[in-house]
Amino acid sequence: MPDNRSDRFAGKSVLVTGASQGIGEGIALAFAEQGARVALNGRKEDKLRAVQEKLPRVSGGDHPIAAGDMSKEDDVDRIMKESLEAFGGLDVLVCNAGIMIPSPSEDVTLEDFNKVLAVNLTSVMLCSRAALKYWRAHDKTGTIIVNSSVHQQIPKPQYLGYSASKGAVGNVVRTLALEYARFGIRVNAVAPGAIVTPMNDAWVHDPKQHEAVSRHIPMRRPGESREIADVVTFLASEDASYITGQTIFVDGGLTLYADFEQNWSS
Ligand code: NAD
């Protein structure tokens, strides 16, 4: 790591959606530790205040709280406006908020399907649109990082909306990257494998289930939020100044066709 890692985002402003827990909290912490002011979005203000307390103080002012539902156009427009005013600009947008709702696909309700798409996909469009409009109107540059998933590539049975949303996010990133590259605006994604967060409470705290999950991962362990955050901060940094339109899989080898670790086909 470069020596200046501790302050490489000094004077920079970052908005992280879904920062009240899990990977989003880890991303917010990593940016703040490296000097950035971070606007913390999530739906619940009290949870965001608790995260704000944990972040190191940085020069320039407090880390703003930006509570709201990022699947709703009015909330996104308000939060983007408030964040831009609080910071006097925006350098990095991290679209991290995400949900999943399981169901056999023959029973999936339109309401649940649309809800997952709204949080995981539409919110990426809404937030990116607002940031891009600001950067273009003020002749500024910035960078967008979207939190996708290995399920951008690997199908996820019984999670049709999740699978569809993450597949689509990969192409949203590539399309925006191509459209805005000439303006110096970079757009990339990080695609986590199985990470220890509240989203995975079903197996994280059960030793048997934890072991079962780990067995499917070539590196034999789930990842930590920090391991995703480190790639997000890399993508946002000058170290990644020539990278755009890419999805970096951070998955302990999950997308390497783990079932082919032993030869069974010939
Ligand atoms: P999590 O459930 O722990 O946290 C999700 C965050 O998103 C929370 O802060 C929640 O409040 C916020 N959120 C949900 N709906 C929102 C909305 N409408 N508006 C604003 N905020 C909203 O989940 P996580 O594991 O930290 O996942 C974060 C991202 O990482 C998601 O996009 C998820 O798909 C992706 N991901 C996670 C894993 C994993 O194993 N945990 C793997 C691959 C991808």
Automatic annotation (TrEMBL):
What molecular function does GO assign, one term?
A: oxidoreductase activity
InterPro entries from the UniProt entry: NAD(P)-bd_dom_sf, Sc_DH/Rdtase_CS, SDR_fam
Classification via PANTHER family: OXIDOREDUCTASE, SHORT-CHAIN DEHYDROGENASE/REDUCTASE FAMILY (AFU_ORTHOLOGUE AFUA_5G02870), SHORT-CHAIN DEHYDROGENASE_REDUCTASE FAMILY PROTEIN
Q: Name one Pfam family in it.
A: adh_short_C2
Query: What keywords are annotated for this sequence in UniProt?
Result: Oxidoreductase
Q: Which family does it belong to?
A: Belongs to the short-chain dehydrogenases/reductases (SDR) family.
PROSITE patterns hit by this protein: ADH_SHORT (PS00061)
Instruction: Name the NCBIfam families for this protein.
Output: PRK07231.1
Put simply, this protein is called NAD(P)-dependent glucose 1-dehydrogenase
